[in-house]
Amino acid sequence: MRQLDSYIARNVFMATVMVVVVIVGLDAIFTLVDELDQLKGDYQFVQALEFMGLRLPRRAYEYMPMACLIGCLAGLGSMAASSELTVMRAAGISVGRISLSVLKPMAFLMILSLALAEFAIPTLERIAQSQKAVAQGKDDILSNKGKGYWHREGNDFMRFTAVEPNGVLHGVTLYEFDVDHELQRVRTASRAIYLRSHWQMENVQDVLLFGDRSEVRTYPSAEWETELTPESLSVVMVQPRDMSISGLFTYTRYLAKQGLNSDNYLLSFWRKVTQPLGTFALVLLGISFIFGPLRAVTPGYRIFSGILVGLVYKYAEELLAPASIVFGFAPIWASIIPIAGCALAGGLLLRKAG
């Protein structure tokens, strides 16, 4: 029985890996083509290629649920086409036992995905974004091109054109408001370097606003006192979907204490936490398809069906995410509802097939 488990797991695992390679490879090509339209300054083809390479783990993580579904359909489908599954069933092996053999390699892939999401992706994303921003033009302080990075601390708002992980900020703009939300001061600097307990800004322009008049001062350098540190910049530099699970949990608690909206971060947190469950639900649905409606169809039709189901699942998540914010239900339901739907459909089909 152990040999049979190994055989089923190997077929499904290799099919899934092949699907991941194909999907991520195609996505990498499209990403590179898109980056070629953004070449600017020192950001040229080699830098765009490096940017694409640093983001490959992130894309593999995002496509993993769909890849597992298609890999399951392809691996089990090839066994069904050669009547191997029929022989197994005739030998008294239950559908549940075969399903367990399929889920084992998927569990390994999910553990690998969680490790990527927690440790590798946040770091690689920070490096990719900072290198790109610096290469494209770190001195465009107030340029509206590119998103930049924003951070709030009390009544102060900060914008950085580029952020380097080693504690260097480029294109710094600081907006200071009073308790009545009136703008009091705007400071800009070409660069800020973290020196143990404070930031040292360079080429500083300080604009003080006094009602109907303003005063402009310039300094070659100036100290900037703030609670912001290179470590806390990790939150500023990456989107919620690219943060680690622990980082999302910590930051949502921080936002709650500050009385700020944390819905986007909660959505990303629950999506990452529930992704393994979603993947298992999709795989369960894929197994039920093989023993049910897709048992005797062509391989191409199985793959098409897997892509279709995967897209429906993904779009359901994407639609429920903003719906949770608009209608006020808990963000966790935006992830649980599609998972429950897939698991219920897969369970019913498997019960019917068994």
Describe the structure.
- The protein has 354 residues and is of the alpha+beta class.
- The chain has 2 domains: 2-136 and 262-353, no CATH class; 149-239.
- Helix content is 62%, strand content 18%.
- The chain is built from 10 helices and 6 strands.
- It has helices spanning 2-36, 45-54, 56-81, 84-90, 95-137, 233-237, 245-258, 263-291, 299-327, 332-353; strands spanning 149-153, 156-164, 168-177, 183-195, 198-210, 213-224.
- A 6-stranded antiparallel β-sheet has the order 1-2-3-4-5-6.
- Strand 1 (149-153) and strand 2 (156-164) form a beta hairpin.
- Helix 2 runs antiparallel to helix 5 and helix 3 (56-81) packs across helix 9 (299-327).
- The protein is elongated, with a radius of gyration of 25 Å.
- The mean pLDDT is 89.
Label this structure with key terms.
alpha+beta; six-stranded antiparallel sheet; 18% strand
How many individual β-strands? 6
Largest sheet, strands/sense/barrel = 6 strands, antiparallel
Task: State the domain count.
Answer: 2
Spatial order of strands in the largest sheet: 1-2-3-4-5-6
Q: Write down the secondary-structure element order.
A: HHHHHEEEEEEHHHHH
Taking pLDDT < 50 over at least 5 consecutive residues as the criterion, the unreliable ranges are none
Query: If you average the pLDDT, what whole number results?
Result: 89
